[in-house]
Amino acid sequence: MNTASSRSSEIRSALQVNPDLKGSAEIKQEIERRIEFIKNTLRSSRTRALVLGISGGVDSTTGGKLCQMAVESLRQEGYDASFYAMRLPYGVQMDEHDAQAALDFIKPDQVRTVDIKGAVDALMQDFASEQADAAKRDFVKGNVKARTRMVAQYTLANFVNGLVVGTDHAAEAVMGFFTKFGDGACDLAPLTGLVKDQVRSIAAELNAPADLVKKVPTADLEELEPGRPDEDAHGVAYEQIDAFLLGEPVDEDAARKIVKQYDATEHKRQLPAAP
Ligand SMILES: Nc1ncnc2c1ncn2[C@@H]1O[C@H](COP(=O)(O)OP(=O)(O)OC[C@H]2O[C@@H]([n+]3cccc(C(=O)O)c3)[C@H](O)[C@@H]2O)[C@@H](O)[C@H]1O
Ligand SMILES: Nc1ncnc2c1ncn2[C@@H]1O[C@H](COP(=O)(O)OP(=O)(O)OP(=O)(O)O)[C@@H](O)[C@H]1O
Ligand SMILES: [Mg+2]
After folding, report:
1. Which domains does the chain have, with CATH numbers?
2. CA–CA separation, 217 and 56 (whole Å)
3. How does it assemble (predicted)?
4. Strand partners, 53
5. Residue ranges lining ligand 1, Cβ < 6 Å
């Protein structure tokens, strides 16, 4: 029978998931492998900086720490490189304390702050006459926030001869849960292939604060539902998304939702359509 679960293996390999990545020794090794990847990407591109937005969520906490470790190691080898952490709040961020805790943990070489509110509001104002109910307008504005953060990160990267880092991983990739050319746009994505629990394991292995390791994931883009858990939007728990990607048993209803979302968002994981 052709069930949704039967797509798990095909999707797992398309998203480069490694189900054997568990246990402290493997996680330690994986951290080293990903740091080497970041270092090699910097060296081979002859760039001198990494730029990443730090939200206070576990993905950017983990990605940011790997970046800082990579540039410190490069400097020890005589290659000059720095990590620029960006705070990109929309006005006052409700969980700013988590973002500050992430920065205290990462100890980035540089911190730059850009309040994206002015740019986002100015753009949205130009679309004030567009027909849309409040929920649709709020959703569209959420994507504008993510794309404005992308613009801010590339602006700094241009100034400092740097690369923009993304935090996409397999559990977000499978759901297409990112803004196309927003947080999905980057030059390197060092968390590629990880399921959410593996991201948390890496964060824990790096001694990230427990509150951040366990923090409920949120895109936090919508003002009508501040801090809305991702799982609410997915209609599926990350536990089930991870299990599906790892080839573990998942109820068929969850598998169906995941596969449906995966197929509908294929365009987000590909280059633009071309003749
Ligand atoms: N079949 C197709 N072939 C080629 N292109 C296609 C297409 N269908 C839509 N498109 C294009 O894609 C656009 C829709 O994609 P997009 O603009 O991304 O918008 P969309 O996928 O509708 O929304 C983004 C989703 O990602 C979530 N998100 C965003 C940012 C961060 C995070 C997070 O976890 O932190 C989560 C957000 O909450 C929302 O649910 C369309 O306007 C169109 O331009
Ligand atoms: N307020 C913010 N300030 C700086 N960067 C942000 C902000 N919001 C989002 N970002 C960037 O967008 C990325 C995508 O957001 P996403 O919510 O998926 O990750 P996260 O917040 O790090 O972790 P989680 O998914 O667990 O909430 C973040 O990793 C970060 O680089
Ligand atoms: Mg978040």
Report:
1. 4-269 (3.40.50.620)
2. 10
3. Homodimer.
4. 86
5. 142-143, 146, 172, 177-180, 182-183, 219, 221, 230, 233, 267, 273
- Find the 62 Cα to ligand 1 centroid distance in Å: 24
Identify the CA nearest to 35 among candidates 246, 190, 249. 190
Structure tokens at 257: 């939702």
CA of 190 to the centre of ligand 3 (A): 17
- Strand pairing report for 49-53 and 162-164: parallel
Task: Give the predicted TM-score (pTM) of the model.
Answer: 0.98
Decide whether any atom of ligand 2 lies within 6 Å of the 218 Cβ.
yes
**Ligand 2 touching residue 150 (CB < 6 A):** no
- Tell me the pLDDT of the chain (275 aa) as tens digits: 578 878 999 999 999 999 999 999 999 999 999 999 999 999 999 999 999 999 999 999 999 999 999 999 999 999 999 999 999 999 999 999 999 999 999 999 999 999 999 999 999 999 999 999 999 999 999 999 999 999 999 999 999 999 999 999 999 999 999 999 999 999 999 999 999 999 999 999 999 999 999 999 999 999 999 999 999 999 999 999 999 999 999 999 999 999 999 999 999 999 999 99
